[in-house]
Design goal:
Blueprint (H helix, E strand, L loop, with lengths): L5 E4 L14 H12 L5 E3 L4 E8 L2 E8 L6 H12 L6 E7 L7 E5 L7 H10 L5 E6 L9 H5 L5 H15 L2 H5 L3 H8 L1 E3 L11 E4 L1
Parallel strand pairs: 1-4, 1-5, 5-7
Antiparallel strand pairs: 2-3, 3-4, 6-7, 8-9
Helix pairs in contact: 2-3
């Protein structure tokens, strides 16, 4: 069991970035806050916006840094230190170049894949030992194209793949709230015929 007390969505602040690929983490926590009818409040001490939600009797924080992506670590470190949240109690949601559109994966630890937000968090906390929810956005094909690619909207065809996988990923929230991360991974990484209740074994028709 992993007691998740904080979910951080990564993105860039400002309306011009709202629908860009790099803001997939913001999309996710905004969707969870919307489901819970939670309101965001400014956290001046942490240079972030945060809200507290309750899912199935389990309370946890949602956080969106107000800094740009490559300075995300400052906001995360300040918030976790103030609230005494350990790295293993945190889930970071972010866009993932190494996964194709339509794929969402959950893992703990590992490298940052050159993601500026993750890299800054690792440096600020001096550890990689936190959970990540990786929302696939695909790769432009060459590293020199990445900066421009992530700061633009997905194409219509890509978004048509991203949306159903994104919506499905939101349904792991009951497992995450209860700290059942292995169950969340099992369901998220398989093709479920019908979304299973949290804590039960999903019915599958194959694996990705």
């Amino acid at each position: 069991m992993e007691n998740i007390r904080l979910i951080v969505g990564l993105g860039n602040p400002g309306r011009k970035y709202e629908k860009t690929r790099h803001n997939a983490g913001f999309w996710w926590v905004d969707a969870i806050a919307g489901r819970q009818r939670a309101s965001w409040s400014k956290q001046a001490r942490s240079s972030a916006h945060a809200t507290k939600v309750d899912v199935d009797g389990h309370e946890f924080w949602l956080l969106k840094p107000d800094t740009y992506m490559n300075e995300s670590g400052r906001a995360v470190a300040s918030f976790t230190h103030f609230h005494k949240i350990e790295p293993g109690e945190m889930l970071v949601v972010h866009d993932e170049l190494d996964l194709p559109p339509g794929t969402v994966k959950l893992k703990k630890g590992g490298g940052t894949g050159g993601h500026n937000g993750l890299t800054d968090i690792v440096e600020a906390l001096d550890t990689k030992d936190f959970w990540r929810l990786r929302i696939g956005i695909g790769h432009p094909g060459h590293k020199d194209l990445v900066a421009d690619y992530v700061l633009h909207k997905a194409s219509g065809d890509e978004q048509a793949l991203i949306d159903p996988a994104f919506d499905r990923s939101l349904d792991v929230m009951p497992w995450i709230a209860k700290g059942k991360m292995t169950d969340a991974m099992t369901w998220l990484h398989t093709k479920a015929v019908v979304p299973a209740e949290a804590g039960t074994q999903p019915k599958t028709e194959g694996t990705k």
